[in-house]
Design a protein that fits this description.
361 residues, alpha/beta, Enolase-like, domain 1, TIM Barrel, 2 domains, eight-stranded parallel beta sheet, three-stranded antiparallel beta sheet, 13 helices, globular
């Protein structure tokens, strides 16, 4: 099976409610979709969101990277030569991790289809279902409480609460949500780089002193502030999750060896796809550091790829794969089943996605 053609399309899917963090506000998923066609007619799908404030990637840069650099490098290669394909993918252009991720997952889709197996079984096959959290956007407290209660009523038992805009006032947000949802709902806090190191310690200790029972705090300080991450991790009891600080295997090793985080958040758009994400999983396993699998604001194709990896690897113990739940519609056919908080793996070969509307003939 050889790579015959690599195409790029686009989807625009409205969100149920605007997605608000300390970094941005978005009301649509407007992503690029990759379709790779093999010489036997089989197709593989991938997806890339233009998350410029995190990855630096825009729609224009993603399309250019794929059409001008990646596609010419890969067309004609044998799908079975997975290691060779990935070496060429990651050497034909620097950075551009979202473009690489979209192509990577489409390659893995075809690779598993060629073996006649769902991707999660090819990657390890650890479990067939798992639970995801759902994001509560940063808003006025009353609105965040209302959104949290609705999420719980919809069956979600794990809430990831966005903060990071108002310092110590964020404690009041979390306290109000905890009071509203009760003690049994798991709360995760995501500051999206919004606090200074000293403010992080004050805020997290305040939450600890009030007994708010936070599962983790995600990326409290700036992505490149390694010393700040190290300082916060060493000063609080609540586990600290590194997200934007970890793009590469080298980042993961530096953070783990420096005790600058308790947990690692793997996102395919940061790692450049499944191939490099698996290396981070192996490093984390070596050091006994648990991982979360997360996503940007993505739709079902790329979230499905992340779900297959999550189902395959035991070191991934937490999931933040709520992208499809945030979308008003699911325009795709096939793939894992996203049933409220539960993600159940499909047994269709590859990712399981059989149709993407942007490529309709």
């Amino acid at each position: 099976m050889k790579i015959a053609k690599i195409e790029v399309g686009e989807v625009n899917i409205p969100l149920v409610t605007p997605f608000k963090t300390a970094l941005r506000t978005v009301d649509h998923v407007n992503d690029l979709i990759v379709r790779i066609t093999a010489d036997d007619g089989q197709v593989g799908f991938g997806e890339a969101p233009p998350t410029a404030v995190i990855t630096g990637d825009t729609k224009g840069s993603i399309r250019c990277a794929i059409e001008e650099f990646i596609a010419p490098s890969l067309v004609g290669m044998e799908i079975e030569n997975l290691d060779g394909i990935m070496a060429r993918l990651h050497s034909c252009i620097l950075k551009n991790t979202s473009a690489k991720a979209a192509v990577d997952m489409a390659i893995y889709d075809l690779y598993a289809k060629n073996l006649g197996q769902p991707l999660y079984k090819v990657l390890g096959g650890r479990k067939t279902q798992f639970e995801t959290d759902i994001t509560i956007s940063v808003n006025p407290i009353d609105e965040m409480v209302s959104d949290s209660l609705k999420a719980v009523a919809d069956g979600f038992n794990i809430l990831k609460v966005k903060v990071g805009k108002e310092g110590l006032k964020d404690v009041a947000r979390i306290e109000a949500i905890r009071k509203a949802v009760g003690p049994d709902v798991i709360l995760r806090v995501d500051a999206n780089q919004g606090w200074t190191p000293k403010d992080s310690v004050r805020i997290i200790r305040a939450m600890e002193d009030r007994g708010l029972d936070i599962d983790l705090v995600e990326q409290p300080v700036h992505a490149h502030d390694f010393a700040g991450m190290q300082f916060v991790t060493g000063q609080v009891a609540t586990p600290i999750l590194a997200d934007e600080s970890v793009f590469s295997v080298e980042d993961a090793i530096k953070l783990i060896q420096g005790r600058a985080a308790d947990l690692i958040n793997i996102k395919l758009m940061k790692t450049g796809g499944i191939y490099q994400a698996q290396k981070i999983c192996s490093i984390a396993e070596t050091y006994g550091v648990e991982c979360m699998i997360g996503c940007m604001l993505e739709s079902k194709i790329s979230v499905s790829a992340a779900a297959h990896l999550a189902a395959a690897r035991g070191i991934i113990t937490r999931a933040d794969l709520d992208g499809p739940a945030l979308c008003q519609i699911d325009p795709y056919e096939g793939g894992p089943i996203f049933d409220g908080p539960w993600i159940r793996m499909n047994e269709t070969p590859g990712l399981g996605i059989v149709n993407a509307p942007c490529f309709a003939s």
